[in-house]
Amino acid sequence: MLSLQPLYDNFIALEFCSSQLNLQGLKYAFRNQITFQATDLIMTSQTRGNLFILSAPSGAGKSSLIKALLEKHADIKVSVSHTTRDPRPGENNGEHYHFVSVNEFKALIGQDDFFEWAQVFENYYGTSKAAIESQLELGIDVFLDIDWQGARQVRNLMPSVKTVFILPPSQSELENRLNNRGQDSQEVIAGRMAKAKSESSHYAEFDYVLVNDDFNLALTQLEHIVMAARLELDAQKHRHQSLITELLA
After folding, report:
1. What is the pTM of this model?
2. Which end of the chain is more exposed for a tag (fewer CB within 10 A), N or C?
3. What tens digit of pLDDT does each residue of 10-26 get?
């Protein structure tokens, strides 16, 4: 009988019996909003990783959630997209984006190199197929930080993708967050607020919806989604194939 380490300040054990996860323990964790440590999420096998999409209107906290998730879990990565826009202060090529020219981007489109791509105003954004596939094959879970349009494209190519939409707790709080950034003019913020309403109208196209009112709670819920995906039937059948064969012999 193998038990996982206690999860945060609440001491529960998600017990493994003959390498099978006790789902009652998982249900307990979900009910009580337990946060998983990095080692609790790692599943020791060569199972293919899961692809996740995280979408949200600007200011909902999507980037902060992804950053916090990556800091806690070494076996989760975020796909680094290509873009033709100029780098913002503090952004590094290859870390935040692959910054390329419009001609370079169009050449990649011609080579069918993108999972999804879109033109947003005067700039292009795209997600590399090869980079994602190589990580998934290593058993790494990959998050895509893309909008609802990109999510549609990826879902058409890979129906198994798990999609998550982040909502702000209110319009007033969203506007406060955008103002507190201190990066944009009131005209730009007004445009972002109008776009946020349009983007949020597509929430029903996603598998999961989180409201980012309490950041730590939203992060915990996102971790739960990752854990649940790793325990789906196909992954568990692959992970425990020998055990299942023995039990059914």
Report:
1. 0.74
2. C
3. 333 333 333 333 344 34
